[in-house]
Amino acid sequence: MERVKSDITFIEPYEIKSYVVGDEFSNHNDVLTSIDDITERKMNLIVQLCEEDKYDGGDLMVGPFKCSRKLGTGIFFPSHYVHSVTPITRGTRFSLVGHAWGPRRI
Description:
The protein has strands at residues 10-11, 15-19, 25-28, 39-48, 55-57, 60-62, 65-66, 74-78, 83-85, 88-91, 93-103.
């Protein structure tokens, strides 16, 4: 049986991200490995920090799925999933972003 190695051993300091009119983040993933190639980013967390009526656009897309914009909503997903934020057309979007690390999958 294959070992999944889903243990979390380190959490990066959280960041507050702001997106203003014209900002976006095209399709990407957040996979990184450590210099010694032993650990990797495993999990992302994105938390909505503002009311959804304070901005237009700015939708968090994880794959083909549009995530909730409700204040306080936390979205967890594996770091290798492709995700994006659509262009902001009005207002400012704030979110809290975190990344968790663990043993590298081999």
